[in-house]
Amino acid sequence: MVLIDCFLMLLLAYGFGFLYYGLYRNLSARVHGRFGPSLAQSFFDSVKLFVKEQSTTFGWMFYAGPIIMATGAVLNVLFIPFINHGDSLQGLSSSANLIVVLYLMVLGPLGNALGVGSNGNPFGVMGITRGLTRLIALELPFYLAVIGVMIDAGSADFSAIFEAQSQEMNLLKHPLLFMAAFISFLGFMGKSPFDVVGAPQEVYSGPATEFSGKFFALLLSQSAMFSFAKLLLMVNLFLGGADDLGDLVLKTFVLFVAATFIGSVYARFSTIQSVEFLMRIPTLLGIVGLALL
Amino acid sequence: MQNLMQHFEIIQKTPTLYALHVSIETLFNTLHHLRYQSDFITLSQLTCTDWIEEERFELGYMLTNLERNCNLMVKCFIGRDDVTVASVVTLFPQAEVMERELHEMFGVGFEGNDTLYDFALEDWQDLPPMRREFDTLAYVQSHYDFRDGRDDNLDVKEQIKIRKAAAKSAKEAQGGA
Amino acid sequence: MEEGFNAYRQSLESEEQSIKSTQSVVEQAIAWFRAHSMFVLAYGTGCGAIEMPPTFTSRYDIERLGVVGVATPRQADILIVSGYCSPKTLKRVIRSYEQMSDPKYIIGLGSCTINGGMYWDSYNTIKKLDDFLPVDMYVNGCMPRPEALIEGFVKLQEKIRLNSSEAGYIKYRDNYAHYRANQERLFGAQVAPSYEENFAGMN
Amino acid sequence: MERKTITIFHGPQHPGITGNMSVELELTGETITKARTHVGYLHRGFEKLIERRTVIQAFTIVCRICVPEPDPNEANFALAVEQLAGIEVSEKATYIRVMVLEMARLAAQLLWMAGQSGSVGLGTVGQWSIYDRDLILDLFEALTGGRVYHMYIYPGGVRRELPEGFLERLGALLDYLQKRLVEYDRLFFDNASFQKRAIGVGVVKSEEALHLGYVGQVLRGCGLKRDVRRDNPYFNYAALEFDIPTQSGGDVFARALVRRAEMRESIKILRQVIAQMPTEGAIMQKLPKHRKFTLPKEDTYVAVESARGEFGYYMAGDGSEMIRRMQVKGPSLIHGFTLLESLLVGEELSNVALIMNSLGICPPEIER
Amino acid sequence: MLHFEATLLGHLFFGLSLLVIVALLRKNDGLWHLLLLGSLGIIFYASSLVTLFIGWEMMGWSGYFILSKTARVSTLQRYILFNLGGAFALLGAIALLFSFMGSMMLCDIDLTLLPVWALHSVSALVLIAVFVKSGIIGAHDWVVDSYQEASPLFSAVLSAILSKAGIYLFIVLLLKQPHDERVLFELMAWLGAITSVVATFKAISQDEIKRLLAYSSIAQLGYIITALSLMQAYALEAALYHTVIHTLVKLLLFVNVAAIMAITGKERFSELGGLLYRVPLLFVLLVIGIIALAGMPLLGGFNGKFLLYTALLEEKRALLLATVMFSSASAFLYCYKLVYGIYLGQRPHDESPLHVSPKSYYIPQLLSAALLILLGFLPALPTPLFSAIGVEAGFSALEFTKPSILNSPFGSFNGAVLMSAFGVVFVLILGLLQRVHSKAKAAQNAQDISYCGEVPKAGVNLHFGYGMGHELGRIGFIAFILRRQSRRFWDYLNLIVGDLSILLRSLYALGTQHILLLSLLGFTLLLLGGL
């Protein structure tokens, strides 16, 4: 039963991931004052890249890099329950808890960092270093918020967190914690003030510089699924988890639209500015939120 | 501007443009004097005109004053073949790039400016291209080949001749009838 | 036999019918995906690059056709040579083209790529882009308008859907020696590392 | 061997470069220790081609020198030929020329805004400003027949009469742009994250700015009120009344505010031109012996204020109908080499595109 | 009267030191290593305070002799000075304990009997010894230099085992603190967390490989000391688990770096790079090492951290937990710098010939890598041993269901499911990628990278190893950390002691009668004091 559950979750994550990616391009197109591509355009892009005739590789480590990253994304999807109280769509979340998921989110990018490092392109490793430097301050407000949620729920298991939010979701109980987490959530999703990792004008498309053909396709697919997993995590932690599929779509969509619109009106901080910013206001929000727990 | 007039024989070309001819020996001292004593403190352009029939280049230092409302052209004639002029990088740092361009385009040497590597052309073996004896059309014929005309269309001039003849004969036929 | 544009259009349609019947459904699907998602390399080589911002932004918005600008040649499918090409630029253009992964296409903008255009007598521009790189689609005009550029992309999409064997990258791969000879004749020996072995294992 | 600094190219094929040039950067980490500009990718040997062309032939090629703003080239060429040959230009033609130049400046500033916001990742502003620039190009198309290359200001006047209803359309467009500028203020100039990125970056010291020959917004950005339209007026700018905005910061944000104020000034000038445009008068003074028009054995230097600074032409005639020598001096020659290379040392890699856009470097006018 | 008594804790620590020293035995200074092993044995099996102190001293100077083969004089001096300082602090603590306990035996030490001031002074003195040994910030000066200048294999021993002696001392002497007198250990918990943050940022900015590893082991010990000072069952398990992991990881990393130094003769990031495809096995082993060092969920490294986080959560120490998580998040940067600086990056042009590395470098690495992977699959394997030690130390037993499920007060996770899920998904995606339409084509050579349209010339350096983390110096508080040199503090102390001794010497220069007068005065004071 668990296998069917996992397969269904992966299918949902893949579908919703590309749907939201297409929606992102459409919504930001409307902000720009144009129509934008069809909703499935990102899916077409990834299939086209999969069926290209050539993809350059730089040895077996470069080949393994994106695979580890995709594995990290898939594991994230599997270890976060989609539905809060039901028994379907739980995946493997019973045998793991929130702290494991937090650190799984970093496993994929570190695996990819090995792959990108092995191709010898300076732009790739500069993108990775920017990601890791930004990670130092990006995790701080998110951890503060997550610690608050765990202490409030009394355990790190998702079921306990859903229990704690059964009457009132964390967004209302701990608004400050939600704000701190949302700011660093913008960074995880690579939205504008913090999208410093692959900035094309600065680092020549960062880590994805040497990815061609099927490797770039794998990168796109895993980033679609990974962003859906992050949306899911935010819903489970702060919006009381999803009662059923419809509720899931609604809540992730609301979070997603907020992130998109915020992202399209901000200029990009430099790496050091984003670290300094994240260490000031969001961390303060988190600490005050914890104090008021 | 007036005290400069007596000091040098300056011709006024337009209300805001003056010209001054100096010999190559006094060039650097004049520029030095203008740079520090007068208010012509900026070198905004370094021009070179090739008078091939008179066998000489004409170097022009375009100086602009502090208020940027008046330009003074300091010009001097130099020989055409492997001539070197004292570089003015010490007076005007921005001259470094201008001299590099003239060195590559005209072959004029500037001793004192050590960055005279290539400015716009890469691996250029031929004559400096802006000299008048360099014929660009001949270079194009020898290095590049053009797209040969479309085989389905005849030469345009012939077509025009045929049409004219047809029109004339048609008019005569119409006149005759 | 009639010549001119209509003839070319009929021959295109008839070829399309003949090819459609021979190709399997999978190949047609692959060609459909390749046509509906084109990544253009962000490289403004000549003065035509000034008409690319209006085409890629909100007024003419080519993203509706699935065309997106990408930063590196590895991710790109289409290289736009926008206007005249000096040997120094041509060296970089060839380098970028050879780093793109198959199937890749070239769009030549403006008359300068067709016959040297306004700089026919300039010592530093190439007169015929076709000698050095296989051009799939020419868009004429001394800087073609955004509408002409979009028309060029639509025509290219039709050509990609045909999945025809005489596409640019196949031509480049098959007679690579011819193109290489032209390049070396123009640049002398300092050409970017040759990709001879690159194609050895392919066909 | 020591591998402490890496060398990368902010190269010709790079989304963060303005045009087709490259900057070779030597980095320790992401801090730049040495920068060297490479140009020549767009060299077409303009001045060589012009030596083989008569005035009427050279006229069509001159406007192709610099792509974002071709009209100062045409104006310079016309001014130089008129000065050498001593041709008078009618009142109406001068007003139309001022109108064309100011419309070109507005279009170039909007293009700059797209580049500047793109370099800090604010894509929305780029989409809007390119759309607004396109509306100006529509008017150019109605007036001159060409969107970007207009070939309109000919020595002796302008080549085509204003289409009827053109001034009303221009007035309507100016009202629309006035409203849009307020939107750009909210999204771009007052955007906290852009200010955080732009303030204190690429600071030009005002003491050496004049002496080193910087022009345009770089001067006005560090408090020096210099503008060719005011200092060395051409056409009838002396009669028009407008002021020269300056800022004292000298950094990227100061130059952005200067450009923002210059857009307002251009709109003010255009409104005056619409009001004072004479209705009758010849717009084109026929050149004597059109094809065999000869220039006297004289040389001259003319300058026009383009959107990025003083754009100068040196032209020398030699009595034949071919032009003996024409040398173009764009603002980007000094900004691209002496200024850019000194500003980048010690700067972060993420500010390279920011500084290049703010200096308005356009490579085709460096090496022509 | 050397008394020995085998305790479970002793067995654990001695087992670890046995594993490390035997794995690193070399012909040339094997004798001293055995002596060192002996002294460790005395410490871990000592049942009386005197035996403990003797073992501590032996460990001190046997380490000194091994270090003296390679290190500079100033490093040696600092090594022996700091260790003696620690030893004398321990001696003071033992004297105080004896004066109250009346007996030297470890088993009948009961801290609750001590008056408050004695309790604090004993704890402070023992903590000084622990700090010196594990190199907490301030006392880390000798650690970094001696790790850097020791022979590569001995720095592995130094980092893997000698730093653990302090931990053992802490557990044996201080663990059974009375509950209400915990203010000293609250301060200690914060000191451990701050040490790990400071050491992490110092590690990121290093260019020599061994200095980076030295700072990283200081940071890891900071975690262990924070865990110990919580005085709670799961925190003890976290500390013990982390000790085991740290020993294995540091053994693996230092021996790997030693192999690289043997092969290339270089030890700086700015001189190395691009060895991936020339020594692939060393690369894979180092990757396993840094995954465990960074605390990634797959290998054993995560279990120690997971237990520490849940213990801190249970104690509701939110800010302390946030600091620890912050320092472990910033540890990813120096882990990546370690693997990128040596193996990844641009393939070196001067393909200097590599000397073949002796097989003996591989055995310890393979051993510890295998153990780490085993702990990844069965995270709760050592839990029975740790809970027995906890019971012995007076804590409640730990909850244990299956070796593959590690449980903690705040939730549990199944290591086997995690690892097998990773393996299955990895193989599935690999299969998908193999059969997809597009064929993989190898890149031509080191120059065939997309480099903005240009061709990287032969002599151009594209290796980012030295510059990684260079930007952090621009951030305010990190720049403060990097600038703060603790050496200036010790040199300043040095000066003060110098002036004092000069003053004292002038005292002796007085005439004999003055000395008589002074001694008389001193004697009377003592008499009065004595009444």
Could you characterize what this model shows?
The complex is a heteropentamer of chains A (293), B (177), C (203), D (368) and E (531). Chain A has helices at residues 2-32, 41-50, 60-79, 98-118, 122-153, 158-164, 170-173, 175-188, 200-203, 213-238, 245-263, 271-291; one strand at 54-57. Chain A has 293 residues and is mainly alpha-helical. Chain A has one domain. In chain A, helix 3 packs parallel to helix 10, helix 5 packs antiparallel against helix 8 and helix 5 packs parallel to helix 12 (271-291). Chain B has 177 residues and is an alpha/beta fold. Chain B has one domain (2-176): 2-Layer Sandwich (Beta Polymerase, domain 2), CATH 3.30.460. In chain B, the strands form two sheets. Chain B has a five-stranded mixed beta sheet, covered by helices on one side. In chain B, strands 6-7 form a two-stranded parallel sheet. In chain B, strand 3 and strand 4 (56-64) form a beta hairpin. Chain B starts with a helix and ends with a helix. Chain E is mainly alpha-helical. Chain E has three domains: 1-181, no CATH class; 231-430 and 462-484, no CATH class; 486-530. Chain E has a two-stranded antiparallel sheet with strand order 1-2. At the A-E interface, strand 1, helix 3, helix 4, helix 5 and helix 10 of A face helix 11, helix 12, helix 13, strand 2 and helix 16 of E.
Quickly list its features:
heteropentamer; A: mainly alpha; 12 helices; globular; C: 203 residues; mainly alpha; Rossmann fold; two-stranded parallel ribbon; disordered C terminus
| Largest β sheet strand count, sense and barrel closure of chain A | none
Number of helices of chain B: 5
Termini separation of chain A: 39 Å
What is the CATH top level name of chain B? Alpha Beta
Q: Give the total of beta strands of chain B.
A: 7
Rg of chain B (CA only) = 26 Å
Let me know the CATH homologous superfamily of chain B.
Answer: NADH:ubiquinone oxidoreductase Nqo5 subunit
Oligomer: heteropentamer
Q: Into which percent range does the helicity of residues of chain B fall?
A: 25-40%
Shape of chain B: elongated
Name the helix and strand elements of chain B from N-terminus to C-terminus, one letter apiece. Answer: HEEHEEEEHEHH
Structural class of chain B: alpha/beta
Low-confidence stretches of chain B: none
Unreliable residue stretches of chain A: none
CATH fold node name of chain B: Beta Polymerase, domain 2
Radius of gyration of chain A: 19 Å
Report how far apart the termini of chain B are: 82 Å
In the residues of chain A, how many domains can be counted?
Answer: 1
Largest interface: A-E, 77 and 74 residues
- CATH architecture descriptor text of chain B: 2-Layer Sandwich
